[in-house]
Amino acid sequence: xxxxxxxxxxxxxxxxxxxxxxxxxxxxxxxxxxxxxxxxxxxxxxxxxxxxxxxxxxxxxxxxxxxxxxxxxxxxxxxxxxxxxxxxxxxxxxxxxxxxxxxxxxxxxxxxxxxxxxxxxxxxxxxxxxxxxxxxxxxxxxxxxxxxxxxxxxxxxxxxxxxxxxxxxxxxxxxxxxxxxxxxxxxxxxxxxxxxxxxxxxxxxxxxxxxxxxxxxxxxxxxxxxxxxxxxxxxxxxxxxxxxxxxxxxxxxxxxxxxxxxxxxxxxxxxxxxxxxxxxx
Length: 281
Fold this sequence. Notes:
Layout: H1 10-26, H2 44-56, H3 61-74, H4 77-90, H5 95-107, H6 111-124, H7 129-141, H8 145-157, H9 163-175, H10 179-192, H11 197-209, H12 213-226, H13 231-243, H14 247-260, H15 265-274
């Protein structure tokens, strides 16, 4: 039976902020990356074919760049970096290879070198939107929000078609409490890629912060439908159910989030708040 949403209590506002801080710090999942783990494109068979292309034309920087992407998608970061480096040695103006190497360096937590590579890419091509987005995401996760916002805005001003620019700017608006602007950016990201779960989850948090529980529910359920293995999504669903007054179902969502990631604090806090409403065995 439908329950009217209850007013946000100070405790649940704190819980929403807790989820918001974690989500804003970590949402850059595989569907929003330029190089993501892709078993097909990073398969041994595909890499073997790309190696044949490299051997056939060892002075072609694009061949190394394409194989580097495949290595990155397979998780072979050292080989990916080596191929991007070779591509750059063959063509010092190959700004895409700098940006691709930066993304892999970021995935290995070498953020200083990644920023340096993004800077090189942008020096060669000041209108390369992907480099602004990649560098901005490093700044965002590092808490350098003003610099991050500048990079995402620059990419948007360049009419980027990459949803990450809007998604990540939305996260910055969200952490600053500008939830209506965040919702607009998440909506734009969704319009560009309706199968990416992160913008739905981000928008759900902002809807919930505005006490729009029904739209928050629709969005977080969609995010879970697209990727049911993310603890932060289930914890947000728990908050939505808690806002509806359905603490029994909220407990189950928080408990599932804790199973997916036992260290995820918002899920543990949610379990503690709703434990008394847990269904009996």
